[in-house]
């Protein structure tokens, strides 16, 4: 079975790569033909073209794409990762009032007119599930014969060493046999927001026995090059002693043996807390913890000494005979 795929907001090609992985996991019983990809970001497009040089890549503002353009591609599947900034926890959460929502709003209007479309996968940040944009999108799906399920899942649940919870919506066009077309190959309940890896049905069309894990549990060592502390890049991005001493209590410090890292955000390197993990070249986590504890004790001692000095100074200032 071969499905024609249109990849929107394509970035550097993550969805494209996922399609290739799906082909591998299903032993090629399911094939994807990426008929086109579209993104307005020139830097991302440059990387995409390097990753997938044979794919038609359109440097489009997606909100300007016409129904005729979309129908000419005859996609069976649309994959999309619309801009997440209008919904992020650290943003203004302007939702539909944010201009960056215009492209998704446009797609919400034109999708009903794409005659070949059978499946949709939409990915976004956690928080999208509460948005007006999501509400408008699912209402459009329901009004146009699509069944859908929604998930909040993290790569860590599939064995990938990164905690990055994201929203996923999977939609499927109903056939005449509406009850049969409701099935997605895994167990779910109508209206449920799936937060755990779903259980595959015994008659699932997927040629895998389980979603969890689809790959072996990985550590950072399995996806990183060996750390060379003398490497120029390693030295360039090394956390300074000053920053380490000042921020160690909020840093998520990991080593190559760890099987989890924090979600990396655009604020990484600008903010220490909650923006991503810091990699240590030390192999023993116990040693890292000992160093951190010693640093905590040193900072506490410095604070106590500073407080004592301030008390002594205040005492001298209040003594007129001093």
Automatic annotation (TrEMBL):
GO terms for biological process: methylation. Signal peptide: none annotated. The keyword rRNA-binding does not apply. GO terms for molecular function: methyltransferase activity. The keyword DNA-binding does not apply. InterPro entries: C5-MTase (IPR050750), C5_MeTfrase (IPR001525), SAM-dependent_MTases_sf (IPR029063). Belongs to the class I-like SAM-binding methyltransferase superfamily. C5-methyltransferase family. The active site is at residue 84. One of its GO terms (cellular component) is nucleus. It comes from Cacopsylla melanoneura. Keywords: Methyltransferase, S-adenosyl-L-methionine, Transferase. Gene3D superfamilies: DNA Methylase, subunit A, domain 2, Vaccinia Virus protein VP39. This is tRNA (Cytosine(38)-C(5))-methyltransferase.
């Amino acid at each position: 079975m071969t499905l024609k795929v249109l990849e929107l907001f394509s970035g550097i090609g993550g969805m494209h790569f996922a399609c290739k992985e799906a082909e591998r996991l299903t032993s090629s019983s399911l094939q994807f033909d990426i008929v086109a990809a579209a993104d307005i970001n020139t830097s991302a497009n440059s990387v995409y073209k390097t990753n997938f040089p044979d794919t038609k890549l359109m440097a489009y503002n997606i909100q300007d794409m016409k129904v005729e353009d979309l129908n000419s591609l005859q996609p069976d599947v649309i994959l999309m990762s619309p801009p997440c900034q209008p919904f992020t926890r650290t943003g203004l959460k302007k939702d539909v009032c944010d201009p960056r929502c215009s492209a998704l709003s446009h797609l919400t209007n034109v999708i009903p007119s794409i005659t070949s479309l059978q499946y949709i996968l939409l990915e976004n940040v956690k928080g999208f599930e509460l948005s007006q944009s999501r509400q408008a999108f699912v209402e459009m799906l329901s009004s146009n014969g699509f069944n859908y399920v929604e998930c909040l899942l993290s790569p860590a649940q599939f064995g990938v060493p990164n905690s990055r919870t994201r929203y996923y919506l999977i939609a499927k066009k109903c056939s005449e046999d509406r009850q049969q077309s409701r099935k997605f190959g895994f167990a779910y309940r109508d209206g449920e927001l799936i937060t755990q890896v779903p259980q595959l049905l015994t008659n699932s069309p997927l040629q895998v026995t389980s979603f969890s894990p689809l790959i072996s549990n990985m550590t950072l060592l399995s996806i990183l090059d060996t750390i060379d502390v003398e490497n120029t890049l390693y030295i360039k991005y090394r956390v300074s002693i000053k920053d380490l001493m000042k921020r160690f209590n909020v840093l998520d410090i990991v080593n190559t043996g760890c099987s989890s890292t924090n979600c990396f955000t655009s604020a990484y390197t600008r903010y220490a807390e909650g923006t991503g993990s810091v990699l240590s070249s030390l192999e023993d986590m116990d040693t890292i913890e000992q160093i951190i504890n010693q640093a905590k004790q040193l900072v506490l001692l410095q604070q106590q000494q500073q407080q004592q000095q301030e008390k002594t100074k205040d005492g001298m200032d209040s003594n007129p005979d001093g």
